[in-house]
Design brief:
The chain has seven helices and no strands. It has 112 residues and is mostly helical. The chain has one domain.
Length: 112
C-alpha cells in the first residue's frame, strides 16, 4: 500500500499550479508527457479515470482543494504552458510515486 504524503505532494504540485502529469513511474526514465500535454479530456473524465486507476490516489486527490484547482488550471492551459507545468512536476521527487497512476489516468481518460 502506498503511503501518501500530503506535504510532499502539495508542495510539488502547489508550486507548479497543477496536479497531474503523465510520466513513467521511474525517476531516472524520461517520461512521455505527450498524453498529458495533448489531452482533450475534461476534468470529470480525468478524475474518473484517476479514481478507477488507483482509488487510493483518487481519494487523496479528491480530498484536496489545491490539487483539484491545480488540475483544472492544467486542463484549461494551452500545450506550451502544460508542458512547462509537467516538466516542473516530473522533476519533483515528491511526485515520483504518483506518476504511474496519473499516467494511466491520462492514457485512459477518454473512456470515461
Amino acid at each position: 500500500m502506498k503511503k501518501l504524503s500530503w506535504a510532499g505532494v502539495a508542495a510539488a504540485i502547489g508550486g507548479a499550479a497543477v496536479s497531474a502529469v503523465a510520466g513513467a513511474g521511474v525517476a531516472s526514465a524520461t517520461p512521455d508527457l505527450g498524453p498529458a500535454i495533448n489531452t482533450t479530456c475534461t476534468y470529470p473524465q480525468l478524475v474518473n479515470a484517476l479514481n478507477a486507476q488507483d482509488p487510493q490516489v483518487g481519494a487523496f486527490f479528491n480530498q484536496s482543494p489545491q490539487l483539484k484547482a491545480g488540475l483544472q488550471v492544467f486542463l484549461v492551459s494551452g500545450p506550451a504552458q502544460r508542458e512547462r507545468m509537467a516538466q516542473q512536476l516530473v522533476s519533483a521527487p515528491a511526485v515520483q510515486p504518483y506518476l504511474g497512476s496519473v499516467e494511466q489516468a491520462f492514457l485512459t481518460c477518454h473512456q470515461f
